[in-house]
Amino acid sequence: MDEEYDAIVLGTGLKECILSGMLSVSGKKVLHIDTNKYYGGESASITPLEDLFTKFGFDPSSTSIEEYGRSRDWNVDLIPKFLMANGSLVKLLIHTGVTRYLEFKSCEGSYVYKGGKIFKVPADEKEALSSSLMGMFEKRRFRSFLLFVQDFNKEDPKTWKEIDPKTTNGSQLYEKFGLDRDTADFTGHALALYRNDEYLQEPCLDLINRVKLYSESLARYGKSPYLYPLYGLGELPQGFARLSAIYGGTYMLDKAVDEIIVENGKVVGVRSGSETARCKQVYCDPSYVGDRVRKVGQVIRCICLLNHPIPNTKDALSCQIIIPQKQVARKYDIYVSLVSFTHQVAAKGWFVAMVSTTVETNNPEAEIKPGLDLLGPIKQKFVSVSDLYKPLEDGKESQIFISESFDATSHFETTCSDVLDIFRRGTGEDFDFSKVKLDLNDDQ
């Protein structure tokens, strides 16, 4: 351990493993340390099923585990999230070649909650015209909006239709196409994946890009814009760890981190017991640097084991449901995700649902009730409330670059934004996506 590295990465959470892979591919000499014995940190996949019960304080011996099928068939993600088929994480996986370690399955449907019911999210013209989410005239207006988004090109003002994306805000864009409040609501939350309504007052370029990403992702694989890896998300950090190792990265699991050594305000190394590894930079999650982060809120997550699909989803074996905040008089959306035995994350005939949101009250469990009510009978619930942390500084002075905690969203776009932002701050340049191939299967 007593040598010098360009970067030391602490923690094997997904963000840290992605950064380790990116830095190694970029030619940096990387040492990766984690105090845990396993990959994934707070975003690990738990197997066998007994370990999940134990983790949440249940005694597996007092539960009839046998009714859940073979215990080893379960790989339950602590923080499940879907990958947008055309999103940043998939591009990153393809660009870095990590796809060769993973196999994906398309998510069967994306739904939105309105007036106490769930509806399939229409994301192309055909679905928009047959959707019961909107009336006939509204469907035509929404179709015009989708066509505008698909044709929009930031570099070609002819495609702007008299809408300046830098000065027109989200609210004005909806008005321009005559979209009513409910349509604007599901567009902003279920297609553009905003977590609250602040975007309505901001320039609409980001909104257009987000809806475009949703539509392009949907066009890639058909049923929905989302993908999920077989055997759960725990495969992702391991894939990036392998990548880092191929490019010379060194890994040490189950290794104590006793001190991050800082001299004259700048990091110079990491100490474990009597050993010290010197470095120019440190990348880590908030748990390693309590004095350099601030708490910005909490997330409640409830993992539910089901022996049936979610009602009213046409028996989908996987899906996402977004409950926009306005529909349940909240500030933040509620997210519901479902994966199942078809993803090799549960025993035959079983399903894993997750309901999550950003905490707003002193009774977090009551806040997710609208999501839980959609699931039908629940065999077992595992509830956790986690603190959300953000770094106090950008890291450029200390050269300590800290990731943000995982938010409540059920997709990876915010995770990727954070990783790419950290990479930019740490290296002074954007990660180069230009070499990305066009299809997940190209790399097989």
TrEMBL record:
One of its GO terms (cellular component) is cytoplasm. GO terms for biological process: protein transport; small GTPase-mediated signal transduction; vesicle-mediated transport. Keywords: Cytoplasm, GTPase activation. Its main location: cytoplasm. InterPro entries: FAD/NAD-bd_sf (IPR036188), GDP_dissociation_inhibitor (IPR018203), RabGDI (IPR000806). Pfam families: GDI. It comes from the Eukaryota. Coiled coil: none annotated. GO terms for molecular function: GTPase activator activity; Rab GDP-dissociation inhibitor activity. It is found in: Cytoplasm. Belongs to the Rab GDI family. Regulates the GDP/GTP exchange reaction of most RAB proteins by inhibiting the dissociation of GDP from them, and the subsequent binding of GTP. This is Rab GDP dissociation inhibitor. It comes from Oppiella nova.
